[in-house]
Amino acid sequence: MKRLHKFIIKSFLGPFFMTFFICVFILLMQFLWKYIDDLVGKGLDWKIVSELLLYASFGLVPLAFPLATLLASIMTFGNLGENYELVAMKASGISLFRIMRPLLIVAIILTYVAFYFSNNVLPKTNLKFYSLMYSVKMQKPEMIIKEGVFASDMPNYSIKVERKNKKNNMLYDVMIYDHRRNEGNVMVTIADSGKMAVTENKKYMAITLYNGQSYSEEADRRQGSARRFPFRRETFQKEVINISMLDFEFNRSDEKLFSHGSRMMNVGQLSNQGDSLFVDYKRRVLRFVTSLNYISDISKQINWLSTPDSLKKNPQIKPDTLVDLAQVIKSMTTFEKDDLYRRTVSSVRGNSQLISQQLEEMYSRKKMVNAYVMEWHRKFTLPFACLIFFFIGAPLGAIIRKGGLGMPVVVSILMFIAYYILLITGEKFAREDAWSMSSGMWFSSAVFLPLGIWLTYKAATDSGVMNIESYQLFFKKLYKLSFFKKSKPEI
């Protein structure tokens, strides 16, 4: 490998790895902002939180690859242009395409790595992430006692305290309702003070009460006038109530419950599952169409389409002769008209009810099919974006000739935001069947690929597309031209 190639690749890999981890970190902060409500106040162990963040980081890698490629490309060629190294290479007879060639090979390798990661690693990490995230969401919040408010998080108990001392964790004016018998508020304990602490095995919450009384109403099986309402009261100096914490333990969900999701499959599995769902969807649509009410000829044709038989003759519908419908109805008797109107209204109402019942189900089924097809395309679009952004970032860096984290960061963020907006727009149109799946999923790539080719051509021909002085000169000429036109004397 030539020294020049080594120098260019080394200049690219440093910014790439740096920007890659920065992008993952920034996207991870967005993830925390989105799911912060599901994580706070549940007493999760730091190992669980770390594992969740690790899986979330893996899920953000497909987006970080294109952004890091774009930013590193702009920084690399911007630094070369700013230090006049790019000018020296061109002066030596080396074209921009030859300068880009080693990094093009690196970009192709990054594209393959991104695809391999999305197809083989990401489905497994997504399976672990979504199963763990579901377990976190199902985790009951940690027991939090607030002053003057009943806390009902503990199973079978409701606890209220009037005042808390944050220095020694003492509780004052404690009231506890015991609902273990499911008979209402028939058992209550009142204490002047108390303290809560989790046992060493973390299976029970021990509530130690001081200077209080417990009241309970006893049941009486006697009926009528002989029935009594016994009442018991006990006074204590110290009493310990152990409340089970089993419902607050973290339980992992079975990963098999989430294994059929679209994000947990590779390309082959998505293709098979998508085809199976589409065949089932067509079968349901055909069943729905044949269940509607039609006139006899159309009903025969639809029944033949639903169950085609090579030996069965196709009852093709022949066009009717032109009939003056108003004249025919006018010739009917009153009884015949009422019967016709009644049967027509009944048929329309039946079809309307059936359509309204099945429409939502058909829509949800089609969205399920689209989800698998979209995920199949996403396995290719995001890795291919690495190659597209290389052809955008490299010529942009050569044109603007600015390195560092200033101008390259601004241009990269604007470019990636535009790409992401087009990506989301295309996915939405594809999901809603407004566009075909290929058109919607590859819409952003179809827009940015010509842009990359155009920028590469402009950079290779040393065009002043990004030169501010060329625009200033153009507007000066335009201003002078308009000024002379205005000042021209009238004849």
Task: Please specify the SSE layout and strand pairing.
Elements: H1 3-39, H2 46-82, H3 85-91, H4 96-138, E1 157-165, E2 170-178, E3 187-198, E4 204-217, E5 231-244, H5 267-290, H6 296-306, H7 325-331, H8 334-400, H9 407-431, H10 437-441, H11 443-460, H12 468-487
Antiparallel strand pairs: 1-2, 2-3, 3-4, 4-5
Helix pairs in contact: 1-2, 1-4, 2-4, 2-8, 2-9, 4-8, 5-6, 5-8, 8-9, 8-11, 9-11
Can you describe this structure?
The structure is a single chain. By secondary structure, this protein is of the alpha+beta class. The protein has 3 domains: about 5-140 and about 375-480, no CATH class; about 155-250, no CATH class; about 260-370, no CATH class. It has 12 helices and 5 strands. The chain has a 5-stranded antiparallel sheet with strand order 1-2-3-4-5, with no helix packed on it. Strand 3 (about 185-200) and strand 4 form a beta hairpin. The termini are far apart. The mean pLDDT is about 80.
